[in-house]
Amino acid sequence: MTQARFALATLALLASTLGPVAAHAQDPGELGVWADANTQALQRRLISELRVRGYATHAIDDASALEGLGAAVWIRGAPLRARLCTLRTTPHCEELLESDAAVLLIRVVETVRAQLGEPGAIAADEERRRAPSVVAPQLSEGEQPGQVDLDASTSAPPTQQSSSPLALSLHASLPLPVRGLSTGLNAELLLEWNLGDTVGLEVGGATSLLSPEVGDATGSASVSSSLVWVGAHVRFLEGALGGHAFLLGLGVGVGSAEIRASAAAPFQERSTSEFFALAVARLALTLRVSDRVAIEPGVVVGVALPAPVLVFAEREVAHVFAPLIAPSIGVRLAF
């Protein structure tokens, strides 16, 4: 079915050169982008990338809607691929296969530049972003054209944004009651340095906003902690999640626990500060709100080495970060 539709679209593209050649000559840089139901997020990203580079680009809602175009791109998933056909004096088609959506987007943009050359300025006239007409060939019985978000094809082109590998995240986390301590509340700050689309380095820190406590008839104590770590992370399933992604990070660091004790008579309290090494892992789901902003629910898991121990009347009543399990939610800002 997929190969048949690609063949039909290519035949229609070749046939169109025998007819309205003047229309293509008047606007050789106008592109149409079609996508199936699984690749519409990539279609919107490709349209945005081409527009900010000066190409007059819009979505087409049928794989064979080619009238008035200087070039057309078809995007399909399973497996992820794109076909670019250009209309100059001689039609030319090129198919690109790539498992990574971000890499495929870059390859399509570079192929468009190589085939069409550098464009002029983006036309301000709304007519250049008009809805395309649907022409033959007819689809065979049972075939359904891909659904397209027409808002993506009629919206104004976005402003070009600078690319930076840095991102900053601010999270609130809730350490669960483990090994005797009550629930607390932490603030976490992470600075990411992304080395590519999937791998990056990070520096993180956390501090107590609400200190966990433990108490019985002999006394009570609260534990205020501060943590710092460095690590690396990997992002995965971004293509399958339409631009969203899972993040898995691992790191090592150091921490301190400020223990404030209060004892009932005849016992005596002793407040102290404890320092320890830290191993930490975090799993987050990056939900993109825009190109720069994302919401990140997740969980942080860690263990202190060695874990500080709280003792009441020669009894161990609590262990600090043995382990740490803290669900979190926050905002990620890319620069």
Q: Give the assembly state of these chains.
A: single chain
> Under CATH, the topology of the largest domain is which?
Porin
| CATH A-level architecture of the largest domain | Beta Barrel
Give me the strand/helix succession. Answer: HHEHEEEEHHEEEEEEEEEEE
Strand order of the largest sheet: 6-7-8-10-11-12-13-16
Mean pLDDT: 79
Number of domains: 2
Query: pLDDT below 50 for ≥5 consecutive residues: which ranges?
Result: 11-28, 121-131, 133-137, 145-162
The chain-level structural class is alpha+beta
Q: C-alpha Rg, in Å?
A: 29 Å
What is the CATH level 1 assignment of the largest domain? Answer: Mainly Beta
Largest sheet: 8 strands, antiparallel, barrel
**Secondary structure: helix percent:** 10-25%
**Content of β-strand:** 35-45%
Q: Kindly, what is the distance between the CA atoms of the first and last residues, rounded to a whole number of angstroms?
A: 43 Å
Number of strands: 16
Structure notes:
The protein is an alpha+beta fold and 335 residues long. The protein folds into two domains: 2-154, no CATH class; 166-334, Porin, CATH 2.40.160.20. It has helices spanning 2-16, 21-26, 40-52, 101-116, 150-154; strands at residues 31-35, 57-59, 71-76, 81-86, 92-97, 166-173, 185-194, 199-210, 213-216, 219-236, 245-263, 272-288, 293-305, 309-312, 315-319, 324-334. It has an eight-stranded antiparallel barrel with strand order 6-7-8-10-11-12-13-16. Helix 3 crosses helix 4 (101-116). The longest helix is centred in the N-terminal third of the chain and has 16 residues, at 101-116. The two termini are 43 Å apart.
